[in-house]
Amino acid sequence: MIRVTILAAALLVSAGAAFADEPIVGNWKTMEGDTAAITPCAGSYCVRLKTGKYAGKQIGKMQGTGNSYTGELTDPAEDKTYSGSGTVSGNTVRMKGCVMKVFCKSQTWTRL
Predict the structure, then answer these.
(1) What is the pLDDT of residue 102?
(2) What is the band of 2 on the pLDDT scale with cuts at 50, 70, 90?
(3) Which candidate, 3, 12, 17, 67, has a CA 20 to 30 Å from the CA of 40?
(4) DSSP-derived secondary structure for the chain
């Protein structure tokens, strides 16, 4: 029984470390000047605004590894959700939201 408990604890620690190493995790400055936090949540990455008019609002959920992520992004001003993607390059992430993969808007955020 003790071995099972130790093994389960080791797996949880290693899973947490894998998420921490993802380049998308961290605090980002949006084009509006707000701070968005991207954190691991339930096997994905949640995007939540920390500052600004919509502070505390979750505006996205993404899955992926390395530099490429896909999921959903929400425009907090209109409260509309779009299919989205995030591409990390150094200290920037390009967030892109699309309707029917044709009409898209993108923003580049910088790491804080």
Answers:
(1) 85
(2) low
(3) 3
(4) -HHHHHHHHHHHHHHHHHHHT-TT-EEEE-TTS-EEEEEEETTEEEEEE-SSTTTT-EEEEEEEETTEEEEEEEETTTTEEEEEEEEEETTEEEEEEEETTTEEEEEEEEE-
C-alpha dihedral (33, 24, 81, 78), degrees to nearest 10: 0
Assigned CATH for 2-111 = 2.40.128.520
Cα 43 from chain centre: 11
| pLDDT tens-digit readout, 23-70 | 999 999 999 999 999 999 999 999 999 999 999 999 999 999 999 999
CB atoms near residue 96 (< 10 Å): 17
Q: Cα separations (Å) of 46 from 6, 8, 17, 104?
A: 29, 25, 17, 21
Give, rounded to a whole angstrom, the gap between the first and last alpha carbons of the chain.
44
Structural contact between residues 98 and 82, judged by C-beta atoms closer than 8 angstroms? yes
Q: Where are the domains of the chain?
A: 2-111
